[in-house]
Amino acid sequence: MLRRPRRNRQSSAIRAMVEETSLSVNDFIYPMFVMDGKNLTSEVSSMPGIYRYSIDKLLEEIAVIQDLGIRSIDLFPLLSEDKKDKIASESYRKGNFYLEAIHQIKSKFPEIAIMTDVALDPYSSDGHDGYVDENGNILNDETLHILAKMAVAQAEAGADIVGPSDMMDGRVGFIRQALDAKGFTNVSIMSYSAKYASAFYGPFRDALDSAPKFGDKKTYQMNPANSREALIEAELDFSEGADFLMVKPALAYLDIIKLLNDNFDIPIAAYNVSGEYAMIKAAAQNGWLDGTRTMVESLTSIKRAGAKIILTYFAKEYASLVK
Ligand code: PBG
């Protein structure tokens, strides 16, 4: 045999030398949940190790993760039911606790990159990402105005990157124009370009109490069976000015990550979502899988597929592991 691939696997030094994909804490964005109140921390029951924090506790936690080398976070709000309405008006009300959290993080940790979520669902009495009419239809163009107000309010509070996760048509261009009109030409857009109608978001909706009150999200989120459609979504977002294209979820959509990475020259991100985290945690807690190795293997596969950036609830655990 002239070709013996095992020769390149024979020692740790050689394996490391030929390793094609390596993870860095720089690749990660850590999703975090914030809630109103003081001195509050509550664990998300379906996501062991992940907590919702009031602003004071969130700031303490950011100091911890910054020490571990994490430099970027994505913030999501948990709202009480009485703050929700059909037009998600709380989302752009000046001084709401979410905007206040962004402001305080920016003043205390100016080096942390803050990404925000732009979609109606945590603020919507219907639990949908868009505006819902009397007949239960999600209205696209009406929603764009709300998204733009939300994005501008987040930029004013100090967001570095806004993340439209709503899947309305035309939202990236609409938000870009609204930001530019207010002088926020330096605020980036990370578009959830190929966001699928996935069962893997369950634990996130528990965390934020944001599940749809009726129906599902299939008229705006993509069909998991489709990949060519992801190219259309990505082309639109690219042409409308997105700075990053995201695929979500990650693990069941590695082909989509590769597809976008092969076709676009802006950074590709992937969201390793709540259900992907919960599956590994549950199996590890039962002793059915080695949690640490499964985490590293999963994150590596997402990077290998072509994601430069990974939004992952594992960011803190991974950063602690390599520290
Ligand atoms: C909401 C939003 C969702 C997630 C991020 N932004 C849920 C949804 O679309 O229902 C999911 C994240 C996760 O599961 O970790 N627009």
TrEMBL record:
Domain of life of the native organism: Bacteria
Gene3D superfamilies linked to this entry: Aldolase class I
Pathway noted in the entry: Porphyrin-containing compound metabolism; protoporphyrin-IX biosynthesis; coproporphyrinogen-III from 5-aminolevulinate: step 1/4
GO molecular function, one term: porphobilinogen synthase activity
Keyword tRNA processing set for record: no
Enzyme class: lyase
Substrates-to-products reaction catalysed: 2 5-aminolevulinate = porphobilinogen + 2 H2O + H(+)
UniProt xrefs under Pfam families: ALAD (PF00490)
InterPro entries in UniProt: ALAD, ALAD_AS, Aldolase_TIM
Keywords: Heme biosynthesis, Lyase, Porphyrin biosynthesis
EC number from the UniProt entry: 4.2.1.24
Family annotation (SMART domains): ALAD (SM01004)
The protein's assembly and partners: Homooctamer.
Family note: Belongs to the ALAD family.
Name used for this protein in its record: Delta-aminolevulinic acid dehydratase
